[in-house]
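Observation: inputs received (chain + protoporphyrin IX containing FE).
Thought: call the complex predictor directly.
Action: predict_structure
Action Input:
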Amino acid sequence: MTGWLGSAYLWVKAAHIVFVIFWMAGLFLYPRYLIHHQQGLDDPAEPPRWEQREALMRRMILTPSLIVTWLLGLALAANIGLFDGGGGLGWLHAKLALVLLLSGYHGWMVGYSRRLARGVARLSLKRLRLLNEVPAVFVVLIVILAVVKPF
Ligand code: HEM
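Observation:
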């Protein structure tokens, strides 16, 4: 499979980065919505608005970009021999582990917003604000692994 993308390789990589940017935009913004949603739980007019905004963002940005980023990323991974058992891809294994965790964070966010829609707020606003920073930390580490390839 190594090199199977041929001359499409750079196009696929460019598309991968574009969809990564879309996904990250959603991962940065969605938890902020959750804070506003939780703050508005006592006002009957607020929750339905946030539920609508969250559903729209999931449908238009978060879900499609998660799927396309993964598909293109896996195509690139096959292109550089991840599935051929070759060596020298420690950075990619580490990156995949971090991206899996980030996908888990994505799932947690969606679950939390479904609970907010039922009026359940499990975390304090302070903790929710702290969890907002998680994607930024992951992006720093993932981009270093993808670009510097330190091991
Ligand atoms: C969803 C699963 C993902 C997989 C399977 C994956 C896999 C890959 C692979 C195999 C490459 C090509 C490396 C090369 O040909 O040298 C690549 C490039 C890249 N990826 Fe991902 N990736 C994923 C998600 C992400 C995420 C979440 C980010 C950023 C937060 C990211 C950022 C990048 C960047 C910046 C490059 C370009 C690196 C370069 O050419 O210098 N990727 N990715």
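Thought: report the result.
Final Answer: The CA atoms of residues 16 and 151 lie 22 Å apart. Residues 6-148 form one domain.
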